[in-house]
Write a structure and sequence with these properties.
The complex is a heterodimer. By secondary structure, chain A is α/β, with parallel strands linked by helices. Chain A contains 8 helices and 8 strands. Chain A has a single domain, classed as P-loop containing nucleotide triphosphate hydrolases (Rossmann fold). Helix content of chain A is 35%, strand content 21%. A 7-stranded parallel β-sheet of chain A has the order 4-3-5-2-6-7-8, sandwiched between helices. The termini of chain A are far apart. By secondary structure, chain B is an alpha+beta fold. Chain B has a domain of 77 residues: hypothetical protein PF0899 fold, CATH 3.30.2320.50. The two termini of chain B are 32 Å apart. The chains are: A alpha/beta, B alpha+beta. The interface between A and B is large, with 38 and 34 residues. Strand 1 of chain A pairs antiparallel with strand 6 of chain B.
Chain lengths: 225, 113
């Protein structure tokens, strides 16, 4: 028997499963009152060093946990573990991004209610993480002063889907002949009005502003604090 | 390259749909890919060829509709389609624009036999 081909309308989001799971995570984070911030960047832009320093500062007053994604090794978790006790490495194997399912699995056994902040360090990649919602409250994209100022123009989607941009390694700006104004202009071309902060984890420059920004986010997540 | 993950997610949905509609084979698959979706169309086509093997869509043609960025200016109300590297209103130069479309990553329809 041969049947006539039929056209079936579907109209479904391809990443529906991830989006549904991310929404559930977001609701869970809100109920627990934990402020969840994710970090994306290319490899080597200083995510781990920045987080180490940030957690050392925030850890004096707040309870923090971190999830860190990499294709292989648990080196980053070991580094972050020196700044905070509750760290889990997500080893993705060949997958170039974190997704909501990996986050949900990695949180197994953690009491979110006890936490003020949960930081998620995504796999170093400026392309793939942009498609996956992780249920985070804020997505921060890092661009280091040792990379090109035109990175935002080359990878517009990740900048467009992020909430805040951090220019890291700002202590290296002069040596790398990094054009700060061009970088800011390029970020605003792909994401108009985006908040941009310049930091150096090494010298501590700009870290107080980041702390202030995240404290503001904490008040959104947890109005009692 | 996360397009293989995307293709596998698509195939899961396709097999489920084809099952509901009592279809034995999927002849064509139509998808919409927004320019701000983070998905590369060439990489998706390449991944599709590999991922579809052994499924109901093993011989299905993948038809991709690229959705450009469409925004509206919150100041002057102009609707326009800027380059993603230069988002601002060409009429009043307001930078922040409301995105109307361009983020789509959607399985639109299937041709089933």
């Amino acid at each position: 028997m041969t049947t006539q081909p039929r056209l079936v309308e579907v109209r479904a989001r391809i990443l529906k499963e991830n989006d549904v799971l991310a929404r559930e995570l977001r609701e869970r984070f809100q109920r627990a009152g934990v402020c969840v911030i994710s970090f994306v960047s290319s490899p080597g832009s200083g995510k781990t060093t920045f987080l180490e320093k940030l957690m050392a500062r925030l850890g004096e007053r707040h309870r923090i946990a971190a999830l860190v994604g990499d294709l292989a090794t648990d080196n980053d978790a070991a580094r972050l573990g020196r700044a905070c006790r509750q760290v889990r490495q997500i080893t993705t194997g060949t997958i170039c991004h974190l997704d909501a399912k990996m986050i949900a699995a990695a949180l197994e056994g953690w009491k979110l209610e006890d936490l003020a902040f949960l930081f998620i360090e995504n796999v170093g990649n400026l392309v793939c993480p942009s498609s996956y919602d992780l249920g985070e409250q804020m997505r921060v994209v890092l661009l280091s002063a040792t990379e090109g100022e035109d990175k935002p123009l080359k990878y517009p989607t990740i900048f467009n889907t992020s909430d805040v941009a951090l220019i890291t390694k700002i202590d290296m700006a002069a040596a790398a002949e990094f054009d700060r104004e061009a970088a800011r202009r390029n970020i605003h071309m792909v994401r108009p009005g985006m908040r941009i902060l310049e930091v150096s984890a090494k010298s501590g420059a700009g870290m107080a502003e980041v702390e202030e920004l995240f404290a503001g986010q904490l008040r959104v997540a947890h109005p009692r604090i | 390259m996360h397009e293989l993950s995307i293709a596998l997610s698509m195939l899961e949905q396709i097999e489920e749909e084809a099952g509901w509609h009592d279809g034995s084979a999927v002849l064509a698959v139509q998808v919409k890919v927004g320019i701000l979706s983070g998905v590369d169309c060439d990489a998706l086509s390449f991944a599709w060829e590999i991922a579809r093997e052994g499924t109901k869509a093993a011989r299905a043609q993948l038809e991709i509709e690229r959705v450009p960025l469409l925004v509206r200016c919150p100041e002057c109300g102009m609707t326009h389609s800027p380059e993603i590297q230069a988002i601002f209103c060409p009429r009043c130069i307001t930078p922040e624009q409301d995105i109307l479309s361009g983020r789509e990553l959607e399985l639109t329809s299937l041709e089933i036999a």
